Amino acid sequence: MKTNVSRSKKFSRSLLFFSVLLMAVLISVWARAEQVILAWDANTETDLAGYRIHYGTASGSYTTSVDVHNATTFTVTGLSAGRTYYFAASAYDSSGNESDYSNEVSHSIPAVNQAPSKPSTPSGASIATVNTVIPFTTAATDPNGHSIEYRYDWGVGVLSNWGAAGQSHSWTAAGQYLVKAQACDSLGALSAWSEGLAVAISGPAPVVVDSDEDGFPDSQDAFPDDPKEWADTNGNSIGDNADAAAAAEKQVPEAPVLISPVDDEVVSTMAVLKTGTFHAAVTGAAHAKTRWQVFRDEDGACVLDIQSPTASTGLTVPKLVLDEGTSYFWRAQFIDTEGMASNWSDYEDFATAATDSDLNANGIPDAQEVASKVDLDKDGLKDNQQTTIKSVKMEGTTVQIGVSIKDCPTALAVESVESEDPHQSEAYASTSSLRLPFGLINFRIAVLKPGDQAAIKLYFSDPAPAKSQWYKYDPIAGSWCDFSAYARFAANRRSLTLTLRDGGPGDADGVANGVIVDPAGVVLASSSGEDSIVSNTVGGLDTPSGSGGGGCFIQSAAAAPGISSNLWILLSLTGLVGVRRMRDARDEHEIERHNACDEP
Hints:
Elements: H1 9-14, E1 25-27, E2 34-39, E3 48-56, E4 64-69, E5 73-79, E6 84-93, E7 105-108, E8 127-129, E9 134-136, E10 148-153, E11 167-169, E12 175-185, E13 197-202, H2 244-249, E14 258-260, E15 265-267, E16 272-275, E17 287-296, E18 302-307, E19 314-316, E20 327-336, E21 348-352, E22 389-393, E23 400-404, E24 411-420, E25 440-447, E26 453-460, E27 468-474, E28 479-482, E29 487-489, E30 495-501, E31 515-524, E32 569-571, H3 588-594
Parallel strand pairs: 8-13, 15-21
Antiparallel strand pairs: 1-32, 2-5, 3-4, 3-6, 6-7, 9-11, 10-12, 12-13, 14-16, 16-19, 17-18, 17-20, 20-21, 22-23, 23-26, 24-25, 25-31, 26-30, 27-28, 27-31, 29-30
């Protein structure tokens, strides 16, 4: 791009600190393309007209220039993985004068993640007797330098858990077994299976006693002296053949039929999931609960795993669980009053609409952003110039709240923050009796690894009322509950330390997936005692000493941590590796291997 030869000296001076004032940027690993985000302090000239960003793949040679007008942040997209880019900026005034280039900054975009190499053939004893523990070991390499875990196939489809390269196994029956190994990197990429090691297991044939000669050994026969009975599924001392109740227990409800959204329908981020009606397999059994799961289409990661507390054929996905402009797929499962779970439904696809509510993509609705001079945590730095705190105007009030992870080593990022006046009729968390002087705040926190506990600090522009407490909103049950056992107000009540756990009580997505979604607020104590509150026992958090109060929980499926679906990189300029799509390999086995949700 040609620049104006009469560049103004004052513009040259004003951009002298561009490279010094670049702010660290956090970008999630599931974004669709490689990108970097630039940010700089605004110039102070009264005739400033705007800025231009210049970049290219060689130092000092900028093949692309973009006029960003008066913005002080800009996202450069469409960059190529595996290449280094160089960036500079210039400012121009209303007369067309343009400054010199700022100091140059550069960043290398990482290459696309590749799967580990095929592990070596497992080494270990190839001949042994039954019940002998045999150690095996294998090795693989990762082209991207990521950490690797291994699992073994001990033959006939018996798999070990993911773990170290060296693992042990014993067999209880004689036979020929083929032992293979597979590697998985920290981003979930799987290697091919290794070549197999043949292992011959020998030993004396077990002594089988079948007293009633019904074909079932006494060790597996609940009625060893009755050739007509051998199983007692429900443990009522009546054989299954004579027990109609036992036969009924083997029947499960019909799998749900998904009604909407289907066929890639575009919906809001608070998608309403609907199934068809419940059909029981046993006369008298009724619909008790429904389990809902939503997966991100791009990488198969489970972002929602919720079990409704009542018979439900509809669920509104909680705020901040889904991202705008993103594709997802989902499924559901019915559970009847006998405790029997249906098979999972088929999968259906949908996408979320993109809106213009957050044009600068900083995770705060534009209408709720605080003024540029706000410093709620009083650290001498403006909140909107830091990545460890996001501050927001609270709807329906004059209060501002900042959500900070500055002193929490397990928290990686404040991804999103937004507020809501719950007293509005169309509010997400409407209430008729609770008094919320600061309104409802929703925020999403990324943690280091799935299941992590994090201590988040909230800063208030006004002190919280003396008799107020911290309450959580359960979007699935549609109720508020006391969470003050895990919330500690400062002495001046201008801040609050909140203890949360990914996938634990209060995490609205119900799954340990590296992200905590938390809707909550300050509630004034009721003088009449008429507030409608659901209070449940909280589990899964380390209670801060000296705290008290009740608690609540989201009806989650208690998913165990798996491979992390969130990987965060903190850089002055952040490059992003797009992850490979998995939509064409979405059979049941693959999904259960890659998402962080366990089957019931």
